[in-house]
Design a protein that fits this description.
It is a single chain. This protein has 175 residues and is an alpha/beta fold. Helix content is 37%, strand content 23%. It has a 5-stranded parallel beta sheet, with helices on both faces. A two-stranded antiparallel sheet has the order 6-7. It binds flavin mononucleotide. The site of flavin mononucleotide has 21 residues, from helix 1, strand 4, strand 6 and helix 4. Flavin mononucleotide binds next to helix 1, strand 4, strand 6 and helix 4.
Amino acid sequence: MANILIIYSTTDGHTRKICSHLQRVIENQSNRVTVVSVIDAGEFDLDSFDKIVIGASIRYGKHSPEIYAFIKENSQALDSKSNAFFSVNVVARKPAKNTPETNPYLKKFLKQISWQPKILAVFAGKIDYQKYGFLDRFMIRLIMWMTKGPTDPKTNIEFTDWKQVEEFGRVISEM
Ligand SMILES: Cc1cc2nc3c(=O)[nH]c(=O)nc-3n(C[C@H](O)[C@H](O)[C@H](O)COP(=O)(O)O)c2cc1C
């Protein structure tokens, strides 16, 4: 049995939902999983975990500053154990941009940080226009219009491939 810490950064809760799904999959393989926001992750002793997974969503082209700061402060601890990183964004709904090798955000992110995660994944995120404020709704609809995605203001859609999330959970169990 491994003791696994999953740290997430989310704005609208979708990355946390992916982490909860991962937790169920990984616990079903007889592991212990703790899921925590990057905001509270400093309260945990990283050395007490066997594996660390970090997941973060993209907002206006970037992962959150808290994720960059956490990785910078803890890159040695991260490197010393089995680890993985995943990014959540809606560009990944496109088959040509849904792998670590082809997703532009993940590729850029890896060049910006000193940590090189041992396992990587990209998951397509969610769009729920009704949940966003006026400006965010306008901007995301504009981006969707430019990239041939849904623009109906009532759109509430999860692009996430949950089977892909489950497969990633099994990879974490085995890493
Ligand atoms: C204000 C806003 C900006 C976003 N910017 C991007 C972006 O630049 N690129 C992208 O692929 N997805 C973008 N997204 C989509 C999010 O990555 C997607 O909704 C994801 O599921 C959010 O996860 P979270 O709820 O964990 O934050 C954006 C979403 C919002 C609401």
